[in-house]
């Protein structure tokens, strides 16, 4: 598959040998799911619940 | 129903369908008249006479040079939609004008722009194989009595090939092989990829390529929401080298399957299908085989989707569906279509 490099790209991998899906947000946040509907709910809630260091656009207040 | 997405290009016809005969197509509920001027330019006008709404694509309406003469009372229109003649009087009312549609001919399709603003620099997505000298293409169009979202769902999940199209393009491996999904939200592109390393060769490919044994079979979907679907299909005997780093792939067979998905009314859809191959280019037998086989496959989908629409019509509002892993791409497409529809609704334009 060609890899898109621009814009906000979401990737969903079917974890080999399992029934699980790995959702990868454009922010780098990752999470596994058993249900694609729940998966999309999580991806689209970005940045809420995306624990990646890149998930929040603004730096933490000091 | 799946909401219409305005401010987009849609396939209204194949270039070879548009000529000096008047052709009527309804796109996103808008009746459109298509024809070609004497110098070969494709024209798109509203397909309703301003007088009593007679369809200009209906007999005995006709062309007089580049002008359209309504077959009911003779109202006559130029390619710019302006009425130039009405019967029995010299004064033509100022408001006697047909809406015009921007038209682009590209890759053997006639695209029309359906929107509340002009397309500007926006061009339709490409399917360059369809009129490339390096490919041979078979194509057709079948109307579906169903919401266009049903066809999007169908095409985004090819695991249905195993069940609906067994004996043609479906083999057990299609439904059994996991997919990878990639969604570019901004560009409204969904990619679904299924790479089968060691699969049975279905008759569609065995009979057209001559491959006898098992194959590696790659299906790389690229859906440009809402109107164009591409399936890059790569087939090669097991053990064939992978594509080279420069992108060339001389040892494999390639088929580019293209669908123009054009919503006609809320519950009818034009299914423009095309199959372009990069092998046996001049073999008429292969051409006829692929034309006939693919038409059969398309009709299997049409019959199934018509039945599905009839079933959905009897469902109570708020009925439940169940989605599983194979639906990941289809769910992404639905979401993108809903977003595009909301962003391009007349209400959004008014804000």
TrEMBL record, chain A:
It comes from the Bacteria. This is Uncharacterized protein.
Automatic annotation (TrEMBL), chain B:
Residues 9-112 form the Rieske domain. One of its GO terms (molecular function) is oxidoreductase activity, acting on paired donors, with incorporation or reduction of molecular oxygen. CDD domains: RHO_alpha_C_DMO-like. It comes from the Bacteria. It holds the Pfam family Rieske. Keywords: 2Fe-2S, Iron, Iron-sulfur, Metal-binding, Oxidoreductase. InterPro entries: Cholesterol_7-desaturase, Rieske_2Fe-2S, Rieske_2Fe-2S_sf, VanA_C_cat. This is Oxidoreductase subunit alpha. It comes from Streptomyces spinoverrucosus.
């Amino acid at each position: 598959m060609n890899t898109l490099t621009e814009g906000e790209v979401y990737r969903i991998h079917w974890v080999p040998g399992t029934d699980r899906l790995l959702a990868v947000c454009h922010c780098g946040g990752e999470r596994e799911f058993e249900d694609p509907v729940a998966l999309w709910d999580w991806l689209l809630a970005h940045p809420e619940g995306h624990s990646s260091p890149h998930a929040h656009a603004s730096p933490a207040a000091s | 129903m799946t909401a219409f997405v305005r401010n987009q290009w849609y396939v209204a016809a194949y270039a070879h369908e548009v000529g000096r005969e008047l052709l009527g197509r309804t796109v996103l509920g808008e009746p459109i008249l298509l024809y070609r001027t004497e110098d070969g330019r494709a024209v798109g006008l509203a397909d309703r006479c301003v007088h009593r709404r007679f369809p200009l694509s209906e007999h005995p309406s006709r062309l007089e040079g580049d002008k359209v003469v309504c077959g009911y009372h003779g109202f006559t229109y130029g390619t710019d939609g302006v009425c130039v003649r009405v019967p029995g009087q010299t004064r033509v009312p100022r408001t006697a004008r047909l809406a015009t549609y921007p038209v682009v001919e590209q890759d053997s399709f006639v695209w029309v722009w359906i929107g509340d603003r002009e397309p500007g620099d926006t061009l339709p997505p490409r399917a360059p194989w369809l009129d490339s000298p390096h490919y041979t293409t078979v194509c057709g169009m079948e109307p579906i009595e169903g919401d266009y979202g049903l066809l999007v769902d169908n095409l985004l999940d090819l695991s249905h090939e195993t069940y609906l199209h067994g004996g043609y393009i479906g083999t057990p491996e299609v439904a059994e092989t996991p997919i990878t999904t990639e969604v570019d939200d901004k560009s409204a592109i969904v990619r679904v990829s299924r790479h089968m390393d060691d699969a049975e060769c279905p008759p569609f490919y065995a009979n057209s390529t001559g491959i006898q044994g098992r194959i590696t079979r790659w299906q790389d979907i690229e859906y440009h929401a809402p109107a164009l679907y591409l399936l890059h299909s790569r087939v090669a005997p097991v053990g064939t080298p992978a594509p080279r780093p420069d992108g060339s792939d001389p040892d494999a067979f390639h088929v580019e399957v293209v669908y123009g998905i054009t919503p006609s009314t809320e519950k009818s859809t034009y299914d423009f299908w095309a199959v372009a191959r990069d092998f046996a280019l001049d073999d008429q037998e292969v051409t006829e085989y692929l034309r006939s086989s693919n038409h059969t496959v398309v009709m299997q989908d049409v019959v199934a989707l018509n039945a599905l629409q009839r079933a959905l019509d009897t469902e109570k509002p708020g009925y439940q569906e169940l989605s599983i892993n194979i639906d990941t791409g289809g769910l992404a497409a639905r979401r993108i279509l809903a977003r595009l529809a909301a962003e391009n609704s007349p209400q959004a334009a008014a804000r």
